[in-house]
TrEMBL record, chain A:
The Rieske protein is a high potential 2Fe-2S protein. This is Ubiquinol-cytochrome c reductase iron-sulfur subunit. One of its GO terms (cellular component) is plasma membrane. The gene is petA. Residues 87-174 form the Rieske domain. It comes from Bradyrhizobium uaiense. The chain crosses the membrane at residues 15-36. The keyword Chaperone does not apply.
From TrEMBL, chain B:
Belongs to the cytochrome b family. Belongs to the cytochrome c family. Signal peptide: none annotated. Binds 2 heme groups non-covalently. Binds 1 heme c group covalently per subunit. One of its GO terms (cellular component) is membrane. SUPFAM superfamilies: a domain/subunit of cytochrome bc1 complex (Ubiquinol-cytochrome c reductase), Cytochrome c, Cytochrome c1 subunit of cytochrome bc1 complex (Ubiquinol-cytochrome c reductase), transmembrane anchor, Transmembrane di-heme cytochromes. CDD domains: cytochrome_b_C (cd00290), Cytochrome_b_N (cd00284). Its cofactor is heme b; heme c. The main subunits of complex b-c1 are: cytochrome b, cytochrome c1 and the Rieske protein. Keywords: Electron transport, Heme, Iron, Membrane, Metal-binding, Respiratory chain, Transmembrane, Transmembrane helix, Transport. This is Cytochrome b. Its main location: membrane. Coiled coil: none annotated. It is a multi-pass membrane protein.
Amino acid sequence: MTTASSADHPTRRDFLFVATGAAAAVGAAATVWPLVAQMNPDAATIAAGAPIQVDLAPIVEGQDIKVFWRGKPIYISHRTKKQIQEAQSVALSSLPDPQPDSARVKAGHDQWLVVIGICTHLGCIPIAHEGNYDGFFCPCHGSQYDSSGRIRQGPAPANLAVPPYAFLSDTKIQIG
Amino acid sequence: MSGPSDFQPSNPALKWIERRLPIFGLIHSSFVAYPTPRNLNYWWTFGAILSMMLALQILTGVILAMHYTPHADLAFKSVELIVRDVNYGWLLRNMHACGASMFFFAVYIHMFRGLYYGSYKEPREVLWILGVIIYLLMMATGFMGYVLPWGQMSFWGATVITNLFSAVPYFGESIVTLLWGGYSVGNPTLNRFFSLHYLLPFVIAGVVVLHVWALHVAGQNNPAGVEAKTEKDTVPFTPYATIKDAFGVSCFLIFFAWFIFYMPNYLGDADNYIPANPGVTPAHIVPEWYYLPFYAILRSIPNKLAGVVAMFSAIIILCFLPWLDSARTRSSKYRPLAKQFFWIFVVVCILLGYLGSQPPEGIYVIAGRILTVCYFAYFLIVLPLLARIETPRPLPNSIADDVLAKSKGRAATAASVMLAMVVAGSLLVGGTQTAKAEEGGNAPPAQAWSFSGPFGKYDRGSLQRGLKVYKEVCSACHGLSYVAFRNLADAGGPGYSEAQAAAFASEYKIKDGPNDQGEMFERPGRPADYFPSPFPNEQAARAANGGAAPPDLSLITKARSYKRGFPQFVIDFFSQYQEQGPDYVDAILQGFEEKVPAGVTIPEGSYYNKYFPGHAIKMPKPLSDGQVTFDDGSPATVKQYAHDVTTFLMWAAEPHMEERKRIGMQVFVFLIIFAFLMYFTKRKVWADAH
């Protein structure tokens, strides 16, 4: 009898301690959640990141513009015949990040290249119409992109990203 | 506690560190092995509660600073954006704002406990003085924090408090200019207050380290006021004090959560939801409740310099307490006279706090002067005198003896706890009483609101009808500039879909630009846009409305209030009544009367309103029966319009109220279960100690 009760007593005590400790852990985790979640973009920032529409009509061949979407510069290039030809004819096997030009533009809109103008190396803004590939040149660390925005030379690991966009008409796109 | 610790960690990695930096030994000797008197009561848990509050204030403050903009033009708006848009921003702001009050509440209990049990006496004088320094730093920090939201009370509080220094002879004006960084309170003042408000809590934390150090050198005082002599008098800090403190903290959190989730504006002032306006002083400037006793002392003295000196002396005198009270017996438990005078002093402080909230006229001024004399007399006459004439009751031989005798004195302890609770409660609620004098308005009748109480929710139909009333009537003159169209689709709002909100937005013309030609242009509204204001600026609004600019309605239900009076405001605390604003707005909308009662003169261009302070309102009767047609068949009456638009404006002022109450209930259920668990754990742990 004595043995049973003394063995029973610590068990109940242990259960209480474990339950209290578990409750404290749950409470701490629930408290930490909002303290961390507040760092995510707030509702106004998210709302401001809604899709934007861009009129392409004023952009002449060979010209490019920079628009901002979600704080990122988006290059919209009206490519020349030469640029399109260069982009399409390059051998995929020679590319560090192989991707055909057709996967980077919308079908039937070959003349329009829409890319996020942020170097995939460390986030600088490449300069358009510079470098050896008729595309972009990043002045920070010398990455060079071609007329399809693909990485050709330099430390950047990947092609310039294509943002989500769609043609609303032949002269209007919606980014986002 | 004294001398190097003999603590040795068993883990080789910790051992390696310990040989080079004996930090684990320090922690072990300070917070684990540290001997703590075994007769400490729950008043001693407030030290731990205060440590937690300081940590919490720093944590929430650092987070708020990530989202806050310290600029005179943007500060008010940035605070609103924190509350409306930042994830859990409303929670963090409530925690920080109510936390300041809780911090002071706890520190006052801590201070009165020290006073009652003589914790300032030899050898704890430095410990006590460090505490007074912490208290002074807290007051400075709290004041500067209150300025940051840049509402009307922020601005005028800053003006009044900084002007205290103008009382300094000869240098006064220069000091004030130095504090302001300009010719008046303005952007430079706000900027430096933000900087200092961020700095001072860390200074407080530093002084707290000294405070705890001094405590650990002298050892804790205890209810018996006799020093620990043998090992039988003490228990190790961990687990005994740790677990008891944790239980105290969990109970305090329940009290704290009541404010955060259910009464976040109870301790605040409605005027601070009006953006700072350097041209208009609120009718009654009242500091936050925790400064009220000193504010009352300031106002009791009819001379500027003397008033300021008296106010600061009321705090500084605490530093001299160890020498003013030279009685050998520490604890008031064994000092029959000192004990009575202590409670009289507590009542004096509470009454001073009450007077600080009342207008400085008539009987209040006389009472204030009498109580100011009582306050100083306690320190300068009563305590020195008692030390000479009082015969203390015999002290227990040791703490262990005190613990054994404890059962006898239990009834008296319970009575003193009860009394202290009542006193603390009224101290708390006394402060909420804003010094709004009767301003000639009738008290608005209390309405039944779907959103009142702990489970209150907005009535969707009412919100949608209210939006219609706002759009068709109010929006002709009043802006709603903190509400975005996207909010109409938010959870806990009027319940529209995102497509409906977008369609609603597209009906508005929003000014945007400049375009590539450098010109501003108009485009259809988008969900991310805010309700456009009817006037381009305040001057235009003023010019179009006979000199009175129609206020923006985003916060109107929080920015308006009326005096509840005693004892109603005490009952409000427990019943969670916080609908003064909606009641007032609803009453104003229905309070227009054609016939002006005898004895009331209404100037040209104003209208009679039964509930408006002073009765003469510049706004003509905005609503009349049949003006707006509801699709859902609700009656087209002014009463219905007023109710619906007020509901809508309450939502506009607090879009996350449903979330606040829902999370509040979860937190409460958790905290109550947790407090019970802590209580039983504490009992189990302490079962070994007896």
